[in-house]
Amino acid sequence: MTSISELSPYDDDGTLNVVIETPQGSRNKLAFDEKLGLFRLKGVLPAGHSFPFDFGFIPSTAGEDGDPLDVLVLMDAAVYPGCLVPSRLIGVIEAEQTERGGKTERNDRLIAVAANSRVHETIKDLGDLSGPLLDEIEHFFISYNEAKGKQFCPKARRGHTAANRLVEAACRKR
């Protein structure tokens, strides 16, 4: 039996593996605790805030912050924490995040579409999303971090090619 921590970033057919931590609509921020092998409540968003889409990570990767790469997954309905969702990358919001103590580091947000999504099946690249939806996604990450006393500063929006390069680099760091 393979544990979540041992999953490959990609399936045999090249589809991206994403493990969902926090379902769409949730105010609870959940995070996989690799040492315990379970999901831990990491925080609660303020009233009126919730995750706009399912949020998770790509197993067997390491980002600039040392954690697995984060992914927001567009799909037709929310799934449960721990669900493996085959996905395709459509882009990335490149960003810097500043902690309370002033430490700033790169903390990009990958965006993917569930491979089985009917609603989003025609979306192949970040440019296929409407500008207002992208603005809402960025605003969510800005306000989410603000509520935690952090600053999230989007620097650029890039398509699936740049996003795939980030995943490849994160696989090598692991």
Summary keywords:
single chain; 174 residues; alpha+beta; Inorganic Pyrophosphatase; five-stranded mixed barrel
Quick summary:
This protein has 2 helices and 9 strands, in the order ββββββββαβα.
State the low-pLDDT regions, or none: none
Q: Given the structure, what is the number of helices? A: 2
| Helicity range | 10-25%
Overall strand count: 9
Output the CATH topology: Inorganic Pyrophosphatase
Beta-strand residue fraction: 35-45%
Strand order of the largest sheet: 1-4-5-8-6
* Oligomer classification: single chain
Commentary on this structure:
- Its cofactor is Mg(2+).
- This protein has helices at about 130-145, 160-174, and strands at about 15-20, 30-35, 40-45, 55, 70-75, 85-100, 105, 110-115, 150-160.
- The protein has one domain: Alpha-Beta Complex (Inorganic Pyrophosphatase).
- Helices cover about 20% and strands about 35% of the residues.
- The chain has a five-stranded mixed barrel with strand order 1-4-5-8-6. It has a two-stranded antiparallel ribbon with strand order 2-3.
- The longest helix is centred in the last third of the chain and has 17 residues, at about 130-145.
- A hairpin with a 4-residue loop joins β2 (about 30-35) and β3 (about 40-45).
- It is an alpha+beta fold and about 170 residues long.
- The model has no long low-confidence stretch (mean pLDDT about 95).
